[in-house]
Amino acid sequence: MIPLYDTIPSRNPPVATWFLIGVHVLVFILEVRLPERELLGALYTFGLVPADLTHGAPAWWTLVTCIFLHGGWLHLFANMWALWIFGDNVEDRTGPARFVAFYVLCGAIAAATEYALNPTSTVPVIGASGAIAGVMGAYLAMFRHARIVLLIPILFWPVFVQVSAVFFLFYWLLVQLLSGGLEPTGQSGGVAYGAHVGGFVAGLLLHRLFVPRPPRRFAGDEGALEYAWGPPR
What we know:
Elements: E1 2-6, H1 15-32, H2 36-46, H3 50-54, H4 62-65, H5 73-94, H6 96-117, H7 129-142, E2 147-154, E3 157-164, H8 165-181, E4 187-188, E5 191-192, H9 193-206
Antiparallel strand pairs: 1-2, 2-3, 4-5
Helix pairs in contact: 1-5, 1-6, 5-6, 5-7, 6-7, 6-9, 7-9, 8-9
């Protein structure tokens, strides 16, 4: 199942989503311009290598830098497509600056989850999948009544179906849980399923911290708006 778009239009230009996509694409272009030896060095320097942290290497900042690296065009495109579908609506609720902070935090928690599951792995963990999983978790909490249009290729015939966001996102989460559970290390074919699950749960639980309280109008204020954290006194 390939998600094509959701049914909720964004209310504001998703400037933070565009910004993040631009940063990811720019970093990947810099990656592919590197000679193979230098590229490998960059992946081990800026990617998260769990064994390095386990053995005391002071590289905790790689929990963030690993988010912006990708292993190929397909890896990049799939992640950016998902960010484009789900990011604009979440950004509508958080605002651009909070959305970027939320995105990075979810990505770091996702990477930390993968580290906790595989502390001796020497394979660099890279990619925005965990951060985007956090956005998807927030989307599930905020837009439960949304619909997702999917492309389901049956042999050579494309079939388009519309399903609820709850169904699609829980199905996606189930696939991550089952796929990761089949591998002792939580990885399969280079995919960090543990990071996906960690990012999703982080987004589901933490999104409220990044949504500003709406203005509330009180009786007798002659149209003035006040921001309140509780009922009027």
